[in-house]
Amino acid sequence: LDIGCGFGNNLVPFLLKGCKCFGVEISKEICHISEKILKGRGFNNFEIKTGHNRKLPFEDKMFDLVLSNGVIHYEKSEKNYKDALKEYYRVLKHNGALFLMTTGPEHDFYKNSEPLGHNIFKLKNFDFRTNENFFFVSEKKNLQYYLEEKFINVKIGRETHDLISAKYDTYIAYCLKP
Fold first, then answer.
1. Strands lying side by side in the sheet with 133-135
2. How many DSSP H helices and E strands does the chain contain?
3. Average pLDDT for consecutive 10-residue bins of the chain (178 residues)?
């Protein structure tokens, strides 16, 4: 399951291996675009549904792997962040894996945000998301804390790139459902 699957790019390697894949996006329009793109590439073994971090339209213990690539920080409070992690946990099978990527403190997205308190930030003068609130973890130990409430074998890394006119900084986490 790819949460916030966009145009289905993260599903392609799994589809090429013959896996049945699922994606979630926040609007029917994005779901239809994703389906069209994947079908246009010759794939049929997938299903894209409308949903979000805290409301995944799938049964309990359905997935071996959940991908959350750049979407969990869209939660606007600690409660919502924790609820999203509970939902990821709910849909994972026993020994299923969560692969999560989220904004790091050197990312332009983070740097262009005003702190409102307790990991809540308001994005300033950035793009169409300006004035939206986000829940950012500023240190690896914070992400570790939230993940260890539900998951085991939590491993966290960090990837940072200086692009031509932007800074990309991401925490990468891998963990298992006990």
1. 113-117, 120-123, 133-135
2. 5, 10
3. 96 97 96 96 97 97 97 96 98 98 92 92 90 93 97 97 90 98
Distance CA 132, CA 49 (A): 24
Beta-sheet strands, E only, within the chain: 2-3, 21-25, 46-50, 63-69, 92-103, 113-117, 120-123, 133-135, 152-162, 167-176
* DSSP-assigned letter for residue 34: H
Q: For residue range 61-83, list pLDDT tens digits in order.
A: 999 999 999 999 999 999 999 99
Q: Is the dihedral of CA 102, 99, 15, 45 positive or negative?
A: negative
Give 126's contacts (C-beta < 8 A, 6+ positions apart).
108, 109, 112
- pLDDT at residue 151, as a whole number: 98
- The tokens describing 61, both together, are 């213990």
146: tokens are 């939230």
Per-residue b or e along 12-51, where b marks 16 or more CB atoms closer than 10 Å to that residue's CB: bebbeeeeebbbbbeeeebbebbbebbeeeebeebebeeb
**Structure tokens belonging to residue 142:** 């914070």
Strands 46-50 and 63-69: unpaired
